[in-house]
Write a structure and sequence with these properties.
The complex is a heterodimer. By secondary structure, chain A is of the alpha/beta class. Helix content of chain A is 33%, strand content 28%. In chain A, α3 packs across α4 and α4 packs across α5. The chains are: A alpha/beta, B alpha+beta.
């Protein structure tokens, strides 16, 4: 059972990948807790296990061993279908490569999670919420453009708005500024800070030590183990 | 703002933005719908209108020939138990003058009450009904055959040589008559008064009999026929012949056509099903990343499956919109242009029942649905992690199976690197490759098979022609001295040789006392050089044979208990004699025939030294020369005071046999085209899909220095590898497939297998077509792959 004081709790989490040379452990026993409203940066070099940990916490991938509790839900026990439905309502995920649907406009991309979760049922309500979120990330003027018609930084803002669509309990971000120039990265990071100020919990993987330093808490990962928590 | 919810917007966007892909998938489905639809439409119309025509005509169960009788006897027989209708008829063979100077055969049938016909009815088509004295109603196909119009006056020549005029006042439809172009004779009906006007007896010699509904089985018909024979004999008349109406040639043609349509329809449907599975699997494979994103934002498997199933159903609806009207139109055109005149159909309506449309719509929607369910369900089963990390290079697909290991072990001088890469790419998606290969292999085997059947039809026809080693046959009303006939013929410079034959008829008296229908008996010299039949069993006649008979395949099929070496009893010229069967031969598809040695024939028919048929070999053998010789011979004999009752040339006979096969060959060619279409679509879609899927991989190759030419070579070679391997397997299978089809179609139509001829040129042509298709199907995607910049390709979704 998870601790109600904690929003996220990982106990002894391991993740192995099968390779022709045998099992490769990307995570070798992670214990971690995150409280509601925290902005936690996960730092580490490439291949240290950052993305794997983000994938496990957001329910994109499944742990080989250990327990993952999020908002009192044992997500390590959920099957793929339950995980998907849970993620759609409880987690907002942001990637370095944006992962937007190219055929949908920015506002439609933001409305898509509401559609699948069947939330904000009337079309008017969905549009209004999507526009509100786009305004929040300062991209409303591009709402009816396709992702291909806006810049990288603007796409990431749309991805953030989409992550917020169903008012999730936390946001998981994997190198959200990795493909942005420093000025745009700074602006996107500012959006995260506003969200945290508004009470959102954010768990963000980054190899940028400067940006990581702006988070409330930094956990450092090396070779699949957490080596520092500050 | 759009009213559609976002996910449905994506579905419609996918349809519209990828119009080429939408068209390819819709066409893949449409090929199957079109094939099944055409087949169903043609089959439904053909069977319905054929049955309707026969039902309306109230076809006789049996025809009994006896001495002249009147309508009163027919009425008394009609009242017998088991008899639904009995009517008297008499048929006279005459010649009608076709402008400007050709004489063609016409059978005039006398009918008592036109309005009261209850059996073997003529169904009025146009003009006056009933006819008056001096008037004739022609079978509707007879107008063209005789070059006449309603209102024209027809000059006819009776057996006596007397010429009379008859006015054509109308046309009727006799669904039992084959096209006159095939049987070389047409018919017409007249009143008894007209017969008197022609100087002929108005009495009947044939009793057309229809049994009631309780006696339609063979035993029932036989029982009623027995009772009717008794009744006729009690009236003091001998029954000269009893003909129990069995399967007509028209039915054989229709049944064979339906069998071809049915079997090929299912095969084409199966192949197009594979095609649809391939295209839908590929569509799902192309969308793996999008599936990952949808799962990322919470799309359940059911929600995504619903989206893709809807997409598939829309493809199906589009396919139906394309294929259903085309299929209905093609089906109707087949009936109008190919079937109607040859088997004498007069379709009352071309409307198709709702079931036909429902089947087409079901095929169009359910087949893609069935084909799509598995790939959709499998595609949406992928984990979010796997879907989001889909990078186009599938680790699981780039396997190390037996084939790949074999390729690796081949010496490099045998297999250059581009060819190795192409071969490995071709086997990467084994399921898809297997389905494509099955489509191409079956398409190849059946395409070659169908063309081989066409070739076998030609060879069989050539055999028919070979059977007749003479050019012109003259028929006489009575046996005449052969020496005299030969002398008259020899007066003509172009006559090379002649031979007199005796023609009569006989019926077989079976061991149980029952009698067969009458078979034509041909009495010819045992060492004749004028026929060259293909011996199926036993041997041909020899000059030493006495009471020996050779049966043709049609007789052998009717008398299944008879084998070579058996003794059978024949009733010929009023005498029953035992005869030994020494052989069974294929002849000329012109009905049942029994061959016996001329001396025995002449002795039995008391016509020693006489013949009623003269076979003439002329100096030239082409159609025009034969026709010219036919006219010269007729005029010459008539100038010498010998009346010629009939003439025929072997080239015309061959052409008539060809017409009979036209429907079957027409359907076979349609099937070949459809199989070719499915095969082509199979290869094209697979190649397009393979390349589109690997566009990122191609980018990688270019990034590491592969030239555009090298990329094109790899892509082209892949298509060529698939096409070549499929063709090779299909080529091997095509031989037994073609043999089987030739045999089955021959037996269904001619009671004997066709003379098998393998269409090697078609096999080679198809190989070239496949290679061409492989090139065309690969070039487009290959060009896109090399025209995109490396950056674009690597960012491709």
């Amino acid at each position: 059972m998870g601790d109600s004081e904690q929003l996220i709790e990982l106990r002894g989490v391991k993740k192995a990948y099968r390779t022709p040379a045998g099992d490769f452990y990307a995570l070798r026993g992670i214990d971690l807790t995150i409280r509601p409203g925290e902005f936690v940066a996960l730092s580490g070099r490439s291949g240290a296990g950052k993305s794997t940990l983000i994938n496990l916490i957001s329910g994109i991938d499944r742990a080989t061993a250990g327990e993952i509790w999020i908002a009192d839900q044992a997500i390590h026990r959920m099957n793929e279908e339950k995980l998907t439905r849970w993620r759609g309502r409880q987690v907002g995920v942001i990637f370095q490569s944006f992962q937007l649907m190219p055929m949908l406009t920015c506002v439609q991309n933001v409305m898509l999670p509401m559609d699948f979760a069947n939330l904000y049922k009337s079309p008017k309500e969905r549009v209004a919420r999507a526009m509100h979120l786009l305004e929040q990330v300062e991209i409303a003027e591009h709402a009816h453009k396709r992702p291909s018609a806006v810049s990288g930084g603007q796409r990431q803002r749309v991805a953030i708005a989409r992550a917020l669509a169903n008012d999730p309990v936390f946001l998981a971000a994997d190198e959200p500024t990795g493909s942005l120039d420093s000025k745009t990265a700074d602006a996107v990071f500012a959006v995260f800070e506003q969200l945290v100020a508004a009470g959102k919990t954010i768990f963000m993987a980054t190899h940028d030590r400067e940006l990581a330093a702006r988070a409330q808490r930094i956990v450092h990962i090396e070779d699949g183990l957490l080596v520092e928590d500050a | 703002m759009p009213k559609l919810s976002t996910r449905w917007y994506k579905v419609f966007h996918d349809l519209w933005s990828s119009r080429t892909r939408t068209l390819i998938v819709a066409l893949a489905v449409a090929v199957g719908v079109y094939a099944v639809g055409t087949i169903l439409a043609a089959q439904t119309l053909m069977l319905r209108e054929f049955s309707l025509g026969r039902a309306k005509a109230q076809v006789a169960s049996a025809i009994l020939t006896t001495y002249p009788f009147d309508a009163e006897l027919a009425a008394r027989i009609a009242a017998l138990p088991g008899v639904a209708a009995a009517e008297g008829r008499a048929t006279t063979s005459v010649r009608a003058l076709t402008p400007p100077d050709t004489w063609r055969s016409l059978n005039i049938t006398v009918v008592d009450e036109f309005d009261q016909m209850q059996v073997d009815k003529y169904l009025p088509v146009a003009g006056a009904w009933p006819t008056q004295k001096g008037e004739i109603m022609l079978e509707w196909l007879g107008l063209d055959y005789l070059g006449a119009e309603i209102g024209d006056t027809l000059t006819i020549e009776l057996a006596t040589g007397a010429q009379k005029q008859l006015q054509v006042v109308g046309t009727g439809h006799d669904p039992q008559q084959l096209s006159p172009e095939i049987i070389n004779v047409t018919g017409g009906i007249v009143t008894p008064e007209t017969m008197t006007y022609l100087g002929l007896s108005h009495l009947f010699t044939e009793l057309h009999l229809r049994v009631d509904a309780a006696h339609t089985d063979p035993a029932g018909v036989a029982a009623v026929v027995d009772a009717v024979e008794d009744r006729i004999e009690r009236s003091g008349r001998e029954v000269l012949n009893t003909y129990v109406v069995g399967r007509s040639m028209i039915e054989s043609i229709v049944d064979t056509a339906v069998a071809i349509l049915n079997s090929f329809g299912w095969i084409i449907l199966l192949l197009s099903g594979f095609l649809v599975i391939n295209t839908i699997s590929a569509l799902i494979a192309q969308q793996v990343n999008q599936i990952g994103v949808m799962k990322l934002v919470g799309a359940s498997r059911l929600q995504m499956a619903a989206m893709y199933i809807t997409l598939v159903l829309i493809y199906g609806v589009l396919a139906c919109l394309i294929a259903v009207p085309l299929a209905v139109l093609t089906g109707q055109m087949l009936i109008t242009n190919l079937v109607a005149e040859l088997v004498n159909l007069r379709p009352v309506s071309y409307a198709l029942p709702a079931e036909v449309y429902l089947v087409m719509i079901a095929v169009g929607t359910l087949i893609p649905l069935a084909a799509g369910l598995l790939p959709v369900w499998q595609g949406t089963r992928i984990t979010t992690y796997a879907a989001l990390n889909d990078i186009g290079i599938h680790a699981e697909a780039a396997g190390h199976g037996l084939f790949e290991r074999m390729l690796e072990r081949l010496p490099r001088r045998w297999l250059q690197r581009p060819l190795l890469l192409s071969a490995r790419n071709a086997v990467r998606h084994k399921g898809r490759l297997l389905r494509t290969t099955i489509v191409l292999v079956l398409g190849t085997a059946l395409f070659i098979g169908v063309i081989s059947v066409r070739q076998s039809v030609n060879t069989t026809q050539a055999d028919f022609l070979r059977y007749h080693q003479y050019d012109v046959r003259l028929g006489f009303g009575e046996p005449l001295r052969i020496a005299r006939l030969a002398a008259i013929a020899a007066e003509l410079p172009d006559v090379v040789a002649v031979e007199g034959w005796g023609l009569d008829s006989a019926l077989r008296v079976r061991p149980d006392g029952s009698e067969s229908n009458r078979y034509q008996v041909v009495g010819l010299p045992g060492d004749t050089a004028l026929v060259d039949p293909v011996v199926q069993a036993g041997r041909w006649l020899t000059p030493e044979d006495e009471y020996a008979v050779v049966l043709n395949a049609t007789v052998a099929k009717d008398e299944l208990d008879v084998a070579v070496g058996d003794t059978i009893v024949l009733d010929m010229a009023g005498r029953e004699r035992p005869w030994t069967v020494v052989g069974i031969v294929s002849t000329d598809a012109q009905g049942p025939k029994i061959f016996i040695n001329y001396p025995t024939f002449a002795y039995e028919t008391r016509t020693v030294g006489k013949a009623n048929s003269l076979q003439v070999i002329s100096a030239r053998h082409d159609l025009r020369a034969q026709q010219s010789m036919e006219t010269i011979l007729r005029n010459h004999f008539e100038n010498r005071g010998v009346e010629v009752r009939s003439t025929r040339t072997t080239q015309r006979l061959n052409a008539q046999n060809g017409l009979m096969f036209d429907i079957i060959v027409g359907f076979l060619i349609l099937m070949a085209v459809q199989l070719g279409g499915v095969g082509s679509m199979g290869l094209s879609t697979t190649m397009s899909i393979n390349i589109t899927e690997r566009i990122r991989e191609i980018g990688v190759l270019r990034a590491i220095g592969a030239s555009n030419g090298a990329i094109r070579r790899i892509v082209l070679l892949e298509g060529l590898v698939i096409a070549t391997v499929s063709w090779m397997v299909g080529f091997v299978l095509s031989y037994p497939a073609a043999q089987f089809m030739s045999s089955a179609i021959g037996i269904a139509l001619l009671d004997m297998p066709l003379t098998f001829t393998y269409a090697l040129p078609a096999a080679l042509l198809w190989f070239v077509v496949l290679l061409g298709l492989a090139v065309v199907a690969s070039l487009g995607p290959a060009r896109s792959a090399v025209t995109l910049t490396i950056r674009e390709v690597l960012a491709y979704e």
